[in-house]
Amino acid sequence: MPNIVVVDDDITNVQLLQMLLELDGFTVHACTNLDQALAMTTAATNAFVVDWHLERNTSGLDLLRAVRQGETAARTDTAVIISSGDHRREEEALAAGANHFLLKPYPPDELSKLLASLLTS
């Protein structure tokens, strides 16, 4: 089963995504902040789903940059999906190395299909 780290400072969103992704066969490590995400990241992490806005003035981009710069246990080419309710964030997320940007709200099955596609390519 693919290992996914989901990061969102809204506990309800994290729990919902965890439940839905687990139903689709993913192993999910649910995190509500950057420190938890870094602690849960291993060499076996296959993908990240990260909200743009995190607590304590951190951003999903902080995690994305750490992954791309080799500052985490994950491979530097690990799939990263950034989500936000603000479409103006898309260009910056993609320029920073995100594999995909999801505009909130998005259908849950869209996320599962996207992850499956990223992990098989």
Please provide a brief summary of the model:
By secondary structure, the chain is α/β, with parallel strands linked by helices. The chain has helices spanning 11-23, 34-40, 60-68, 90-95, 108-120; strands spanning 3-7, 27-31, 45-51, 79-84, 100-103. It has a five-stranded parallel beta sheet, with helices on both faces.
- What is the global morphology? globular
Biggest pleated sheet: 5 strands, parallel
The class by helix and strand makeup works out as alpha/beta
SSE series: EHEHEHEHEH
N- to C-terminal distance: 16 Å
**Strand percentage:** 15-25%
Going across the major beta sheet, what is the strand order? 2-1-3-4-5
The pLDDT mean sits at 95
Give a count of the beta strands, DSSP E runs of length 2 or more.
5
Unreliable stretches (pLDDT < 50, length at least 5) are none
Considering DSSP H and I runs of 4 or more, what fraction of the residues is helical?
25-40%
Query: How many distinct helices?
Result: 5
Q: Name the quaternary structure.
A: single chain
Q: What is the CA-atom radius of gyration, in angstroms?
A: 13 Å
Give an overview of the whole structure.
With 121 residues, the protein is an alpha/beta fold. The protein has a domain at 53-88 and 95-106. It has five helices and five strands. The chain has helices at 11-23, 34-40, 60-68, 90-95, 108-120, and strands at residues 3-7, 27-31, 45-51, 79-84, 100-103. Strand 3, helix 3 (60-68) and strand 4 (79-84) form a beta-alpha-beta unit. It is globular, with a radius of gyration of 13 Å. The mean pLDDT is 95.
